[in-house]
Hints:
Residues 209-241 are annotated as: Disordered. The protein is an alpha+beta fold and 241 residues long.
Amino acid sequence: xxxxxxxxxxxxxxxxxxxxxxxxxxxxxxxxxxxxxxxxxxxxxxxxxxxxxxxxxxxxxxxxxxxxxxxxxxxxxxxxxxxxxxxxxxxxxxxxxxxxxxxxxxxxxxxxxxxxxxxxxxxxxxxxxxxxxxxxxxxxxxxxxxxxxxxxxxxxxxxxxxxxxxxxxxxxxxxxxxxxxxxxxxxxxxxxxxxxxxxxxxxxxxxxxxxxxxxxxxxxxxxxxxxxxxxxxxxxxxxxx
Length: 241
């Protein structure tokens, strides 16, 4: 249900990565390393277990040889498990099913949709072996968020052979990147909390055994639509002589 949000956030982070300016020597290597090897997902928000998350990332970094030191700097991204319904000022949830058709659907099927809207908390932790590098990364990320147009990203939900985009955006934090205490004197960790505001569609189609329009197979990626009900006039007008 929320995987498209995570995928969209990944595209957003890749856009940020492409604009990072290497202001320190470690950042030069960070930029040259490539996006997949410079950012990674953590199981959840990580302030309390930051060093644990870093150790797990370093163990899974397949590029590391037996004598090569772990790659820093790195950005780890964690998404909280909780869910908060959206405020009315952001968007309105659609709790009752609404009939919907898609102009791009060649079969012109009728489906139904509900939407949930709310907030997902996330956190970015910037790990570096020196303070200037960690500060530079955090500052450049907050600068990237300063543009309202950049804070929006697309979340794409596949249904009935089509892709449907729904709005998602990152709320710019009011607080600065906070220092995370660590027992390692050669490690600096700065964390930035963000909020993802998302709208997620719940598409509905007839289940197996339910009435449908016969233009697909229930329970597959090509579902049948709901039958189109036509009104019948019980008292047709008499033809004019």
